[in-house]
């Protein structure tokens, strides 16, 4: 504890603001390992919340948790060709243990398809063994060489990885909507985070998948970032790993598989999107401290104010996470700054006036508005304010996202929108050539093809080549 | 799914029984990585339960979760001399990423003192920053070269690692009893597992600690195995990592630290201790399926029996985890065998007789006793049976443990007890020389010095040298 060290840039200088907000809030910290960060308790609390709610929804959907080894033998890792090509440059290899050199290199999992499907091929023999729907919560290493950014691009991150196998393509496909719905609900209901769900284009899909789907967010710098994703692997991995079963007719078939993940990156997007010049703004449901009580007194009023503050604190239900900040060495203003930087949703200010009137002054972190309320049904009142704050945060973020999308009909319009750091929504013929040219000329890539804007696409023309359009795509600069 | 493949040895052939029970039950599996296992859903459910209850108790005690990098730079890892010497032979090193050789080797954490204390030294400046009580749930790699045994000796295991820092030695010491109490309660209340709590001798303590404490179990082969542990690190790591703070008098001091852990090894001990010739016996609170309903019918009675079985299944509360095993291809006897192998606590048998009488026949997995009960208040009746099963399992295991301990007064007695594969409880002078000689001559090592048998030790003589005794020690062969 030392002098208060606030953020010394505005949020408009986004990249500097972002790292200052994450580090100075004491939610995260750099570590001695380049590109890897430390999750401090308030930051990790957000991940624990995401895990808890996602895991519950997975279990209700019939998915079961398991745990597979961290290390993957090189020969397994190489079994699916596209997969290994996609991940190889970023794989960390264990080659020595103590003073002994290993006979075979071991990869630290960048993702676990290969080690999991090696087991699944032993377990699946009959249609009665399907569907097999497994998930694990773990960390993965992808040693990117681009400039690292805490949570958004780190060499180690935390995630869930769902890996499922089905008897038919239809069953496998029907899982997609349910899983994307679970992710969307967690993002909306807990992180107050709106996103755009859609399919990735062929060139942006996952290494080894048949088709990929994502939820994308818009960051304050106008770049998009990919959140949770879902991949239909078809029979690609089943063929590489020999995952075969006897179907009801006694025929030996390959299984159909899916993979899906939510990662700690969504925390970065959430902090970036909700924060302001003062620091973080944490959605109430994932904030370790939801309400902070700051007593304001002088020598004369001290006893009375502290006694009233303590009474209020004790009246607040245990399911609201409250902190009475009665440390004597900081001024109330200093405390306000600290808790604002850390994004505590509600601040209750209690002075001699509140004590005499039997009231509370409550400040909401997102709007910074203060309201005086009576000390009556305070649990109901505070719960309602927390609820309203969540709703308002979601609505605000949703408006920002909606306003960032421009429907463009010509390539000139597309270029203009990209220069304005926005999302250009355009019809596209489906050829990789057009997609690549757009990327080369504007630096904007196809983020995804939103599910809800595809209707009537057959009447449109490709924004680049003018041929008949097949998809509507969001083009934007991205992380 | 195939022919039922039961355990083909008795539990008395312990080592073969143990691996068959873990693998054939489909709780665990071998993997393609030598010495690393797969946690399948029923096995992982036990770990999730341990995590849930331990984590709740930690949080109630004020401990907060965090997450630190998996990889530790070599220069950090080497900072505490005893620590690095203890772990170096088992460390897996990352030396290459993609095709690039790293400038500095990175250790996969065998334990995280070094990476965590590097951060703690930045965070702790004043007595107001203390105590700092952190925990993380993660996996660690210790590449042992001894013969691996699933859960008991694996190269990767899952654990909690608590790392705390205090302003005074007294505060640091006072944490010990609370943490060991939390671990004992989780073992007793959820795993029905009794253990012996005590201090480790100087030569058996943790690499880098001032003193170590453990909870030890007795395995069916008479060998002891160490469960959860707690280490007072004193100022050892604080000095190596420069964890200093200004105390209330403005003096700059080193912090006092502790470390504590429970690992997936306790699952192995639990399965080994409770199992029988038929397979696993899972304590009800950590069993993914607590009750299985097996309908027994012929063509004529099928509809009636299935309809009654379904009604019973639906009457059982959702907080009891029940499965109606109505798959048609296996005989009831085959199903009995499968669920017994997998240790499902209660089996409800329903035939035409039960249906007509409005009764249930319930078999308890631990005693294999059947009881016919009326279909009345079945949730109360089943809950009571599950509760009683847990109590009885704990009592049985506690009796086995108590009967295995022999108090010995002479070295001849000690040797005899060790030959009988039991625990020899003996007075000891405290010299490493005697301890080493006993180990060399009997292959029994000091497991720990139980807290509850130390009174009056000063009147006793060392079992080996006859000098004045300082401690009462449990000697046993061990894992």
Could you describe the 3D structure shown?
Two copies of one chain form a homodimer. By secondary structure, chain A is of the alpha+beta class. The first copy, chain A, folds into three domains: 14-274, BirA Bifunctional Protein, domain 2 (2-Layer Sandwich), CATH 3.30.930; 289-386, 3-Layer(aba) Sandwich (Rossmann fold), CATH 3.40.50.800; 405-476, 2-Layer Sandwich (Translation Initiation Factor IF3). The first copy, chain A, is built from 14 helices and 24 strands. In chain A, strands 3-7-8-14-11-10-9-23 form an eight-stranded mixed beta sheet, with helices on both faces. In chain A, helix 2 packs antiparallel against helix 6 (169-191). Chain A starts with 13 loop residues before the first helix and ends with a strand. The model of chain A has no long low-confidence stretch (mean pLDDT 96). At the A-B interface, strand 2, helix 2, strand 3, strand 4 and strand 5 of A face strand 2, helix 2, strand 3, strand 4 and strand 5 of B.
